[in-house]
Amino acid sequence: MNVDVTQLPGIGVRKDFQARSGRRIGVVTHRDGGIDLIVSKRDDPDDCAAQIPLTVDEAAVLANLLGVPQLVEKLKEDHRDLPGITTRQLPIGEDSPYSGRPLGETRLRTRTKASIVAVMRAGQIYPSPGPDFVLVSSDLLVVVGTPHGLDEALEILTGG
User: Fold this and answer.
1) 130/85 Cα distance (integer angstroms)
2) Cα 4 from Cα 135, distance rounded (Å)
3) Would you tell me how many other CB atoms lie within 10 Å of the CB of residue 3?
């Protein structure tokens, strides 16, 4: 799929692509740091049907929502022939006892036999994070393990 990049003089940069529906979907990054999610009208790709201003945090959450499911689906596909192994997204909430602390302090692998294979943060994927990787609220952890181990991992990340 092709992403078109268009300089918008005095405004910023527009990056968009044409969806199967024929609409163009993209993002305008303003020179002042603002971010807009844009969707074109079906009959005119240069006319917006919707323009939604996003904060940096909102843009990061949207990126997480769009990026992590693809990674999880790929991992599920890779583990399809391994009975008893599954992949799940586990959030680090604001009230998590591990927000602001290194991943190694969770002792997740030792306690649950589940492995954190990636962390999605602000639209970025951090593959194979090490024990010194500091978790923050709004992180989504991509974790592989047994269903029971994943349930235990969620309990640990939410309650300690």
Assistant:
1) 22
2) 34
3) 10
Task: Write the CB contacts of 104 (distance below 8 Å, at least 6 apart in sequence).
Answer: 130, 131, 132
Q: How far apart are CA 43 and CA 38, in angstroms?
A: 15
- Give the CA radius of gyration of the chain: 19
* Helix or strand run (H / E) with residue 141: strand 140-145
- What span, in angstroms and rounded, lies between the C-alpha atoms of 136 and 129? 13
Would you write out the chain's pLDDT as a tens digit for each of its 160 residues?
687 888 889 998 888 888 988 899 998 988 888 889 999 988 887 888 999 998 877 876 777 677 656 666 666 666 566 677 788 888 898 899 999 999 999 999 999 999 998 888 877 788 889 999 999 998 889 898 899 999 999 999 988 7
Distance CA 157, CA 67 (A): 21
Q: Can you give the pTM of this predicted structure?
A: 0.55
Block residue for tokens 């592989």: 144
Residue 46 to residue 123: CA distance in whole angstroms: 26
For residues 128 and 109, what is the distance between their CA atoms, to the nearest angstrom?
13
